[in-house]
Amino acid sequence: MKRMINARTTRILGLAILLATAFCAAQGQEPAKNPILWADVPDVAVCKVGDEFYMSSTTMHMSPGIPIMKSKNLVDWTLVGYARDVIEDSDALALRNGKNAYGAGDWASSLRYKDGTFYLATFSGTTGKTYVYTTDNPAGEWQARSFRPMFHDCSLFLEDDGRVFLIHGSSNIRLTELRPDFSGVLQGGLDMTIVENAEKVAGGRRGLPAEGSQFFKRNGKYYLCNITWPAGGERVETVYRADKLEGPYEGRLVFKDRGIAQGTIFEGVDGKWFAMLFQDSGAVGRIPYLIPVEWVDDWPVLGVDGKAPERLDITLEGKPLGNIVESCEFDAAELPLAFQWNHNPVAQDWSLTERSGWLKLVSSRVDSKLVQTRNILTQRTFGPTSSCQTLVDPAGLKEGDVAGLTLLQRKYGYVAVTKRDGKLYLAQGEAKTAPNGRGENDANQENELVALKDAAPIYLRADCDFTNRRDRARFYWSVDGTQWRPIGGELRMVYTLPHFMGYRFGLFLQSTQESGGEADFDFFRVDNNTILNKDFVR
Questions:
Q1: What's the rounded Cα separation, in Å, for the pair 504 and 382?
Q2: CA 290 remoteness from chain centre
Q3: Residue 374 burial (CB < 10 Å; 0-12/13-18/19+)?
Q4: How far is Cα 290 from Cα 96, in angstroms, rounded to an integer?
Q5: How confident is the model over 247-260, as a mean pLDDT?
Q6: 3-state DSSP call for residue 49?
């Protein structure tokens, strides 16, 4: 009987989506599609405040970090701020003394709202601490509390009686009570394992243990959401439930579709429920999907016929990526929220005011590796195709400087102006590749070098194709911004776990011989329509 109810429910959902799509088309409106954000927005957590929704995500070593997004319809998201500026000041987080926080920083957050206050919990493998941020204005400043130990993939839960808990761990999921002021673990409070071997309900040989906890309460029952990855299979979502906070918990596999998993289940408007999960999508990163949820016998039933629908019963009102990616002419006093620095920035080494209408980058040290270069200013790449252009003025470069546009990941690529023996050249390069085929990032491997006639500003461009995980990029240059010339070969973009982040467009200045060089950038323009080489996109 339960299977019949589930099938009937998903058929009704599918019919509703088809009817909504037809209505939107008749009205000249566009129905929303999955993925709702084709960009690196992983580890999503959602909370509802009145008729609005807020979502946090992971940006690890980027600054500022932990983006906070807002929406009324769950598909048109606006970036309103960040929970933190920097995590802390350390060598790893600031790219000092050869250290870095790639693939680290802070990870999966949980987002809550209660009685006028927003709460966000996260943790950092770099500092070994757990963090709880609070604010009454998610677009404003957040207050941070930190304590040890580090609770892996922690989900904050605010109980009705005022007690506060973290649900955390891998495989063996634990419940730990915090002090009411979030300053640390409550001595004598609850601290126990609530589910052992949480991946067991997914079946198959053990691969990635259950983690990525998100915890909520509905109709007096407690629910624990986790991801797991059985060996030889794909990422799946599991749910455990209990009548009491301490348990006992019973669980089941609730969603298996193309590796779309990890996130949260939450109530929408008009009694509807949804899951916001993400999918590993190659070099562009981890991209979120919105999935309708029905409840049957107090268990969540995800998707339409068990799948994430391509189209949603929601009308898209704005741009698909909102202001999460954004062009900029550098003519304002502040950078748009879409920009993030690669690691903690050095404040005195960049300026928007020293040269009006330009971003100035200054080098204050020598770096042999592009990925160790400070003050790389980044934005997300996005799919299915995306492009970025800039205009760089190389007049202030010093001997050995390299300044331009990069596609940043461990196996990075770039197009840039470099100065050698007093002369300027245009260079296209990538991470030097070791014999095992992995980008070792110990030097820039140049693929093409072109002599420049003078120090006039040069237009630079990078085009990306993420269609069907093709994950290819090409670089171009121009003297007038109209006629573009390709340079170097095709970059094969690879999502690597050491960086654990989708590719980023980045503006950079790297000094390899002496410090003190300068590079000015006139603009940063992104779009997803005008990819130059049509043979390149297939």
A1: 9
A2: 16
A3: buried
A4: 40
A5: 98
A6: strand
One-letter amino acid at 384 equals P
Query: For residue 330, what is the DSSP state?
Result: S
Q: Does residue 10 surpass a pLDDT of 60?
A: no
Tell whether the model's pLDDT for residue 487 goes beyond 70: yes
The residues that bridge with 287 in the sheet, in sequence order, are 279
Distance, CA of 466 to CA of 292 (rounded, Å): 26
Cβ-based neighbour number of residue 52 at 10 Å? 12
User: Per the structure block, which two tokens stand in for 194?
Assistant: 């609530």
Q: Are 39 and 287 in contact (CB under 8 A)?
A: yes
Q: For residue 133, give the nearest of 153, 109, 161 by alpha carbon.
A: 109
Supply the pTM of this predicted model: 0.93
Q: Which residues pair with 208 in a beta bridge?
A: 229
Contacts of 510 (CB under 8 A, 6+ apart): 363, 367, 370, 373, 401, 402, 403
d(C-alpha 499, C-alpha 399), whole Å: 30
* 8 A C-beta contact, residue 283 and residue 409: yes
What's the whole-number average pLDDT of the chain?
Answer: 92
Residue 478, pLDDT > 80, answer yes
Is 90 exceeded by the pLDDT of residue 525? yes
Q: What is the pLDDT of residue 530?
A: 65
Q: Count CB-CB contacts under 10 A for residue 207.
A: 15
Torsion sign across C-alpha atoms 50, 69, 211, 136: negative
Tell me how far apart the alpha carbons of residues 339 and 505 are, in angstroms, rounded to a whole number: 10
Q: How far apart are CA 262 and CA 386, in angstroms?
A: 26
- 179-208 pLDDT, tens digit per residue, is 999 999 999 999 999 999 999 999 877 888
Distance, CA of 276 to CA of 110 (rounded, Å): 13
Q: Residue 23: in which H helix or E strand, if any?
A: helix 2-26
70: closest CA among 49, 84, 85? 49
DSSP helix/strand/coil, 371: helix
Structure letter (DSSP) for residue 202:
G
Span 123-179, pLDDT tens digits: 999 999 999 999 999 999 999 999 999 999 999 999 999 999 999 999 999 999 999
Give the three-class secondary structure for 469. Answer: helix
- Identify whether the C-beta of residue 533 lies closer than 8 Å to the C-beta of residue 489: no
Tokens of 258: 């193309």
